[in-house]
Amino acid sequence: MPRTRHTLMQILIPALLLLLSACSNGPRTISISEGELQNRITKELSVPTTLLRIFDVNLSNPIIRLDGDTQRLHAQIDTRISNPLTQKSVQGMIGISGKLGFDAASSTLMLSESRVEKLDIQGMELDDTHSELLNLLAAKLGAELLSNIPLHTFKPDDLKIGNRHYVPTDFRISGHNLKITLSPQ
Q1: Which uninterrupted H or E stretch holds 100?
Q2: Distance between CA atoms of residues 138 and 77, nearest Å
Q3: Which residues are registered as beta bridge partners of 112?
């Protein structure tokens, strides 16, 4: 019996060490799909907002695309802008893009450095003054509404394995997925 216990320990200890080394302290990668990101953006943009205290803005039906070449998220969003003072509204589409980054305070993947790539308002023929005003409004819209959109909030378990804490260090778009590298602290 002691011989069997000794043999068992000789097998069990190396197996446990091998298992522990497999749970290494190195980086790990998680993946978030375009569909998951689109669902989150749809939820975030579903709340109407007021811009410049004058215009009511409704954004809906975002269609996103992850661009591996530029490492940016691109979105086309249906837009309706109305002015309660004049009772007029216009509809169209806004195209935006943004970089992906991490906000450590909230453990959230955010859309940052947003910019308006395209603005197409239906039925509007604008002179230079109104066109410039609309472009300024679009830039303001991009800066106020679309920057820092939370795309994914990491749960505490996502950033901790055992006693080891991880932090997102790299974001790479690969195909239709966002690959996030988590490195140990």
Answers
A1: strand 88-103
A2: 12
A3: 99
Determine the 3-state secondary structure of 118 from DSSP: strand
CATH superfamily of 26-184: Uncharacterised protein PF07273 family, DUF1439 (3.15.10.40)
Write phi, then psi, for 17 (nearest 5 degrees).
-65, -40
Query: pLDDT tens, 35-85?
Result: 999 998 888 887 777 766 777 888 889 999 999 999 999 999 998 888 777
For the chain, the domains span 26-184
Instruction: Give the position of tokens 């140990």.
Output: 184
Question: Residues near 121 by Cβ (< 8 Å), separated by ≥ 6?
Answer: 79, 81, 90, 91, 92, 134
Cα–Cα dist 27/160, whole Å: 12
> In this structure, are residues 150 and 36 in contact, taking their beta carbons and an 8 Å threshold?
no
Share of the chain above pLDDT 90, in %: 18
The answer to whether 161 and 24 are in contact (CB under 8 A) is no
Taking the C-alpha atoms of residue 163 and residue 174, their distance in angstroms, rounded to an integer, is 30
User: What angle (nearest 5°) sits at the alpha carbon of residue 77, between those of residues 96 and 147?
Assistant: 45
**Closest alpha carbon to 145 in 87, 94, 72:** 94
Judged by average pLDDT, the poorest of 67-71, 110-114, 143-147, 165-169 is 143-147
Beta bridge partners of 121: 92
Kindly report the pTM of this predicted structure: 0.72
